[in-house]
Amino acid sequence: MGLRDRIDFLCKTILAIKTAGRLVLGIDGLSRSGKTTFANQLSQTLREQGISVCVFHMDDHIVERAKRYHTGNEEWFEYYYLQWDVEWLTHQLFRQLKASHQLTLPFYDHETDTHSKRTVYLSDSDMIMIEGVFLQRKEWRPFFDFVVYLDCPREIRFARENDQVKQNIQKFINRYWKAEDYYLETEEPIKRADVVFDMTS
């Protein structure tokens, strides 16, 4: 099944389960599995079919570097537990998705390592789409109506950045890959997702 077929299948599924009020859809998957591209294409297709969609990218809401690097914790712990302010986002983003008409959130600037606050306006008819890694962590999973998991092996996900991986192999092993393994083992996202797409083809 190619990307276009996956998008079409998911659109039909979403339209079949969509009822009055907002539907909160999660696009989950590990780093470099294609979540952003998938979410952008899916949202465009849904809008073409008359569905109003608001998309949140979790990487827009990470904390500044001093809170996620050199904290005295293991690197994988920093990436999994400290990359985002999980508790704050639970209350100020996820708990507000169904009822609020506007959300004021901090958006992170990677170049300046600072945040700026922006207000996102939501209508009653919006579908809320959230894409990001570790979405099915226990703190956030209950807020989704439907979750898609993009499954792709590590060797494929990082193949395009092979030189960068080789130069920083210990960082990838100790920070990113240990956190991914922890997520897979503790939260079982593939088993819990409503739909799993094999992204190797």
UniProtKB/TrEMBL annotation:
The keyword tRNA processing does not apply. Keywords: Kinase, Transferase. SUPFAM superfamilies: P-loop containing nucleoside triphosphate hydrolases (SSF52540). Residues 24-160 form the Phosphoribulokinase/uridine kinase domain. It is an enzyme of class 2 (transferase). Its EC number is 2.7.1.48. GO terms for molecular function: uridine kinase activity. Pfam families: PRK. This is Uridine kinase. It comes from Bacillus caldolyticus.
